[in-house]
Fold this sequence. Notes:
It is built from ten helices and 22 strands.
Amino acid sequence: MIIQSSKVYVDEKLQPLQIEIENDRIKGIYQYGQFKVDVDYGNLMILPGLCDTHVHGYNGGSVCDATVGFCENWCRYLPNEGITSVVAGISSHPKDKLLTAMSNIAEYMENPKGGAHIIGIYEEGPFISLGKEKGAQDPDCCIVPDRKVIDEFNAAAKGHLIYVMVAPEMLNGDYDVIDYCRSLGMAVSFGHTAATFDICAEAVEHGVNSFTHTYNGMRGLHHREPGVVGAAMYFDNCFAELIADGVHVEKHAANILAKCKGKDRLIIVTDSISLKGLPYGEYKDSENSDATTICEDDVCRLPNGTLAGSVRKLNDNLYYAIKEEEIPFVTAVNACTINPMRLLGINDKGLIRKGYKADLAVFDETFRVKEVYVDGEVQELKS
């Protein structure tokens, strides 16, 4: 099949091009109008399918409680945000519960039923700091990781644990677990951490290559102690997540981070929790022991006002990043497409390129989703 548009995102430009799809791959890219097409999308944008590396659930269901059925329903929903790939994020809960959820996710990954791909599991918790940087995560579930712990979690995940977050100050100067994770091909990020800049610098030397929801849940930037935020801006070889909703990070601060990371190291995420898709109001959910309120700015808060995640869609964050945070178009698009794949070492997704997976998303000028292809197949979208 051949599709075309006057705005196809190739080589970091919107260009008039045709895309030929054969089975689950992009077979060729041609000049606009060169061949007879099956679908002409006119002036709609065709981008690589979006990827969310930091997401915890939807419609009342949590990744930490994941069943095979939840994974199937979730993956069928995700194309409604333009998402074709997702990393399933667990947080700080009792270990046995997390091991069961990871096993169920892995079972689904090995026998998927359609929709977006779960490309791996992200361990945002329980390797967290016990200070205020813990945010809404449960400190009673904190674990100081070592090789044995990583092996236990990765065994439950059947080898699909691909992204691990640590609070490096909890390691007391022994970074062997970071070396080990990197030797297994896992990305490692700083998050929910009170580490100093110097501790971050030591951990980067051992392979930490990302920062979890930058600015949130970490020691801030001070002119005498750059902290974790300063490290995120300083280390050019590291990626940095950004919740681009204007609430978790004020829009000018978001723009500063984007300028520091550039078009190749920023990653836009949602950090959306299980309450995504539910009406505004107060809920008791599995993510937090206290009641959580979905507010009209699409963020969730605990009774004390602590931010507890988001319910914003990734395509909406992408549009907000460009329109309100004034992040350059290429930087914002790369942050939702190719940069997550670079972080995770995935080499056949995130670009519209011959031989790559035919995972594509079609948007209007405000990034409303018009059509999505996963493995070259059109997905059913909810109206």
